[in-house]
Amino acid sequence: MVGNPGAAAGIINTRSTHLPTLSSAVFPPSELWDYAVILYSQETVAAACLRLQDRRGADVNMLLYCLWIAASGRQRLSAADLAAAQEAGAYWQSQVVEPLRHARRNLKTPAMPVDGRLAAELRRGVSDSELFAEHMQIIMLDRMMTRPGGGGGSLEDRAKDAAANLEDYFRAAGLKAEAADAADLAILLDAAFPGWEAEAPPS
User: Which of 70, 105, 130, 158 has the CB geometry, 3.0–4.6 Å to 100, for a possible disulfide?
Assistant: First the structure.
């Protein structure tokens, strides 16, 4: 998602006067989007996600998807569901989101002698378009998961399912988690399932 942790929340503020066409009114309801906005609004979560994105090339939307699947009681992602989500997400990221991200970052310090004020305005529009594309991907992932949520399982069980989903995603995406990555993944799990370790039975 876009680097500013408040950006995801900002796009769904219908009172915004900037690019009102990006209001959430144009998007269908999405349980995954609502979950992602709330979780990503935590600064520690946003920072951990962006570090994983920049350091390993992880898809932030897939990280949030793996957490949501477990948090919503859908348990572990099947190999088929993960492969389908990974393939669709990777295509959308490479063909739509990443070009917008590169443009946004390049506009921060343009290499060409363009008007700085216009570059800043264009960058803001590109940033909104990037988040629009991220929102579309999340809706796509939401629709691809047809298994209903609300299943049983303790907080600890759901946290363990989420950890397994993240591990499976890293493996499917060909990403190797090193110590710094494991620490950031732990931040995501702690934020998504606060206090779950306290429920674990003593060894």
Answer: 130
Residue 7 amino acid letter: A
Q: CA–CA separation, 106 vs 114, rounded Å?
A: 12
Provide the residue ranges of all domains of the chain, joining segments of one domain with +.
Answer: 7-194
Residues in contact with 110: Cβ distance below 8 Å, sequence separation at least 6, in sequence order: 116, 119
How many CB atoms neighbour CB 166 within 10 A? 24
pLDDT at 150: 83
In the chain, % of residues over pLDDT 90 = 74
**Prediction pTM value:** 0.84
Quickly tell me which residue has 């306290």 as its tokens.
198
CA distances from 203 to 11, 110, 195, 200 (A): 46, 56, 17, 9
Residue 73 neighbours by CB under 8 Å, 6+ apart: 149, 150, 151, 152, 153, 158
